[in-house]
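no rush on this but wanted to send it before i forget. what follows is a protein written twice so to speak, once as letters and once as structure tokens for the fold. mainly i need to know what kind of three dimensional shape the backbone takes. thanks a lot i owe you, the record is right below.
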Amino acid sequence: MRRYDWLKEIRRLDPEHDFLRIYRIIATHEFPWDLTRALELALYRTYAVPSIGRLLAETAELTDRTQKRYDDTALLLDAVLEHGFDGEDGRTAIRRINQMHRSYDISDEDMRYVLCTFVVMPKRWLDAYGWRRLTPHEQRALAAYYRTLGRHMGIPELPRTYEDFEQYLDAYEAAHFGWDEGARRVSDATLDLMAGWYGPLAPMVRRASMALLDDSLLAAFRYDRPAPALQRTVRGALKLRAKAVRLLPPRRTPHYARQNPEIKGYPNGYRVAELGTFPASRRLGGCPVPHGEGPAVS
């Protein structure tokens, strides 16, 4: 295979009907490392909306059990990507996502915004740090994939095109980004988790992560702006990485999020039906909600 052979295959596919196949190629062959970073940043951005960040702080899932929450979120989204919307594990993952969200009072607007981050942030990350940019063809597939996920999650009034997703995200952030003490705790816990993966390099990695945050995020969380020299160094290093990756041969076998070293909570495998939280069981007088079905993944 040559470097652009996957892109040639993508261009032969219909972005409105073959969006799952296109997104799998993008996420598991072309940009597995970049998509992981982009989706981490996508979820992180949502904390800056006080109604979202405050709720996450109240549940304590991202402050007291940060690694588990990270793992479960990545693995549930990964199951949909790997097994599709009609596969058993894909359906189970969507059911788990919906069960968790229905346990809390989350507005349709906030749900729609979170979905928009999954569409917009991968493109923006790849524009800045990818070994190539997404084509308009791929952007259409990305929008179609997450529009389908949004329908399965029952989110109304979904954006149609990539441009619609982007416009909604930018308008929502301009209207809603702001300070919240609980959201800041969630942000700190997330940055500490990601830096902690690198052991003694954790302080340096945390500073580098802060250098990737834009001014609107820094202002919402009341972080000091990193030194311009540090921002240039970190962003320049990612651009140098992109140039090196461009010279590599294409990935022949897919790399899914479950294979990432950052997933640390399930060394002996997991069942998709048991991922996430089960807050409904506590609201039913301690009567457990069945969640043991589904094959184990190792």
